[in-house]
Design a protein that fits this description.
By secondary structure, this protein is mainly beta. It is built from one helix and 19 strands. It has one domain: UDP N-Acetylglucosamine Acyltransferase, domain 1. Strands 1, 3, 5, 7, 8, 10, 11, 13, 14, 16, 17 and 19 form a twelve-stranded mixed beta sheet that branches. A seven-stranded parallel beta sheet has the order 2-4-6-9-12-15-18.
Length: about 140
């Protein structure tokens, strides 16, 4: 188990990074951010930002390029595409696939009540009530 940091990436000394984690070029991991690969690798793409108290964990997990994980976000999605924003205090469950250019609003929870796989289509914006979230989520 090792942490691999690509050139031009910045990982704060106070960040909590454990397990088999690869951090892409140009990615910034702020102090007190948490990236845990407990039993399988996590690959974090290029030019991502992981802010304070954000948590990324799953087994395994692939995160694309240009994603932003705001303060206190919790992301366990199996896959995350490119250029997504996870706003403060949002939560994305492990049975979710996030495509590209999606926004998960502050405090929103994206999960499946019956534990089926959920796929967020490109350019989905998740805000407001559970009904709005379910309308944007397409079970696979």
């Amino acid at each position: 188990m090792s942490v691999t940091v690509q050139p031009r990436a910045i990982v704060a000394a106070e960040a909590d990074v454990k397990g088999d984690v690869t951090i892409g070029s140009g990615t910034v991991v702020h102090p007190r951010a948490r990236i845990h690969a407990t039993s399988a690798p996590i690959v974090l793409g290029n030019n991502c930002i992981v802010e304070e108290l954000a948590t990324i964990d799953n087994e395994p997990m692939t995160v694309g390029d240009g994603n932003v994980f705001r303060v206190s976000s919790l992301v366990r999605a199996q896959t995350t595409g490119n250029c997504n924003v996870f706003e403060a205090r949002c939560s994305v469950a492990s049975n979710v696939h996030v495509s590209n250019f999606c926004v998960i609003g502050a405090g929103c929870v994206v999960e499946s009540a019956d534990n089926t796989l959920v796929h967020l289509d490109e350019r989905s914006a998740i805000y407001e009530t559970c009904e709005a979230r379910q309308a944007a989520c397409v079970p696979q």
